[in-house]
Amino acid sequence: MASTDTTTETRNAADAKAADARGSETAGLEAGLDALETRVVSRPPVLRTLLTKALPPLVAVVIVLALWQLAYHFEVKPHYQLPSPVDVWGSLREKWLEGTLLSYVWESVSRGALGFVASLIIGTPLGLLVARVRPVRAAIGPILSGLQSLPSVAWVPAAIIWFGITDATIYAVVLLGAVPSIANGLVSGVDRIPPLFLRAGRTIGATGMKGVRHVLLPAALPGYISGLKQGWAFSWRSLMAAELIATSPDLGAGLGQLLDQGRVGSDMSLVLAAILLILIVGIGIELLIFAPIERRVLRSRGLLAHAR
Amino acid sequence: MTTPTLTQQAATAGTQETAGYAARIDHVSKSFGRPGAQHVLDDITVDVAPGEFVCLLGASGCGKSTLLNLVAGLDEPTTGTIDVPGSRPALMFQEHALFPWLTAGKNIELALKLRGMPRAERRPEAERLLELVRLKGAYGKRVHELSGGMRQRVAMARALAQDSGLLLMDEPFAALDAITRDVLHDELTRIWGETNLSVLFVTHNVREAVRLAERVVLLSSRPGRIARQWEVDIPQPRRIEDAAVAELSVEITEQLRGEIRRHGQH
Questions:
Q1: Does residue B93 have a pLDDT over 70?
Q2: Does A22 lie at the interface with B, CB-CB under 8 angstroms?
Q3: How far is CA A256 from the centre of its chain?
């Protein structure tokens, strides 16, 4: 201890005065630089955001409805093949008044959510394994990305043979659709981590599982979230395919079954109403759940400031 | 400040005292690729004394960053030994390498946590370190909200949070503008004076080396060997435009140019 103390003391004694004067000068200069160079990140007013973001899609919807109405009016197809928007609305209203509309939606959404969560629980460790363990990546990496391009509806016949027309069939198809895209999202998220973060993590002692938890996973989060988004889209799509094909009175009826009901009864406005509901649920969940999470993550990292 | 920091710092300094050095680089050579390939570093022997500030100076290809990686334990020497008593050395890069998903304060707290500091003590210690680099009030700021100089200061605070006794710096100010760099030189000198930190600082900027160091070690290039060393006894705080700094810089630059010229001759 002795020699360090003496060095520090001599250092201090000799330079104390000069250091004091210099210190306050430096502090002032530094404060000036900090003030000049700090970026002020301000968010645009809510009304303008609403106007620029919500108005264009609203206009697009109105235009589509107008074209639809025109096509109906001029009878491009006979009315029983192409009902008007009002007819479709009528079908929806009828189901609503029967009190069954929400149960169709709920049946599908709850299946979708459960399937998605299961995919998340399987896909996340799988993705981590593929991203970090070289032999695993060599072995199943290509298969995993190949599976993404396989339409999961192709699994439906196989699943029906295995499980019969049961909930298991539906969940199997959803998992086969969503797991690969969640795992792949995580893999590409990990691949895009700047190596410097990993080095910096190692120097401050984030090694092994600590490294995964404190550096790897948070650094891969943006890629992971876009994987989740895609995973949800795949879950929902696969679910509809499965519900459409696997219909049975024993099985709770979801939107896919509603769609099939319309087909069987040649009720075109019911078919269109079901399609519309499927679309609205898909977009709604993306908009209400995934988009805000993604925006928050990107904004907190300063990755959204320019994208406005 | 509070006891844990002091005890631990004293403990690290203690190990350094017993060993008589903060880092010992003993006949270290390093080559990459096949055995027998040309050495990047050739027979380097340097000690960093406890509390000493040493600058490694050299042109491109002298292996100064390689040497720093070896001392940091991120790579192994081909021959020779490196001994760093006490805990893992702290390392600062040219880029701030702060994690963008954490606030400035949480970046520092992560280093504290990984070093094993109990949760309750982390926040006050992070605040203290931020104050040390004169960034009081930056605790909740995100990395992208800070200027380049502020980021490097937070990175310095994070490095200090490791409480390692030896700070390795790999051209940490190279990407900053001149005025900001001057300010950070002042800050580094001040912090080094206030703690009993040993610093091994790598740079290709002669003036920076003379501005900061107690000892400047000039490396030749391909292979990296120690060409010459200078003790710098100009009193601190120096300034980069001081006459004495300029004078010694001229001398060192001459030698450095000579080293570089040798490579054009064959």
A1: yes
A2: yes
A3: 22
